[in-house]
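Input.
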Amino acid sequence: MHPLMGKLKPGLNASLIARLVLLCGICLACTIEAQDSAGKSEGKQQVEQQLAELQEDIEQLQQQLTAARSDHQAEQQQLKQLDLGIQQSTQAIRALDLQLSELTRELAPLEQEREQQLQQMQVDQQQLAEQVRDTYRLSRQSRLKLVFNQDDPAELGRMLAYYEHINRAQSRKILALRKTLASLEVIYRKIEVQLQEIAKAQQLIQQELHLQQQQRESRQEVLVQLQQQIGSNEARLKEFEQNRRDLEALLEKLNDVLADIPSDLGQHLSVSAQKRQLPTPVKAKVRKAFGQQRSGGMYWQGWVFDALPGSEVTAVAYGRVAFADWLRGYGLMIIIDHGEGFMSLYGYNESLLWEVGDWVEPGSVIATVGSNSAGEQGLYFELRKDGKALDPAGWLKR
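Output.
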């Protein structure tokens, strides 16, 4: 028997006992819920801390990789800075395009309101003109003449009342026209401000485009220098192999850290549940396929899409950004962790639109297409499971 039951008086009824038991149950449930809530909050903070530490680890790893590779260091560093500069310009242009679209949307209802006010003003002007003509016809005889010539006092009263009615109607129409003109003046001023903002945004876009073009030309010059230095097949093989090792080292670091970070997929399907149904990251043909031989005797571990520069790159599945930075041999790259050991990699980008730690929805635009260190345009895509490269043909819907 529960200790509490021994302390109850014999005469205590069953209803009171039931209420006490229910109260104890509610208190216990509240306590458990509070503990669960606190645990979740603490867990979320721990995850965010782990992601911050991950970013620091990645930066240290990149510094180590850079220090270990002194070959063509100056040109590679210059290439990195140019790629980052082009990304900044691309992001600025994208932001200005969004601003321009928003300004244009705000301008549309103002134009519509102006058109409605102009139509109403035309109606008021026509009505006022008709009233003026009626007044002119009736006023050809003066009021005194009407008084002396009218034999019927009732008819006289009606005529005078009609005069007053026309005068009041004219006054109302004149007042309405003045209000319409005042409203139009306010609208025209708003439209003028919007047009000025649009012109300013367009000018800034042109400036950024000019700067971007200069950066691309400088980038091409650096690429020519690099290609001259990496001329022989042996040198290319060495470069490809080292690029692959850098990527493997990065992925190993990501796997080690992300293994402790819980993947909260919520209602989203996992990658394994969408085999052969994952969308392609860009709308373009595949130029290089998984397993095909590349120069230097190596083989492609992913796909190269023949996409135009500036094309939008989308996430193939729900996940969290684990890496978003420049990596030698792959340019601007974004890596998304999808849980269960799955990662998707997107390289050769011109700009990255998300940062480490961000959750991305499937189909979200995460980057724009650029070109690789050899100057070849397109998107490089890999899908990995526990660090091992998978053939996208078995996972993407074509």
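Residues 153-229 form the longest helix (77 residues).
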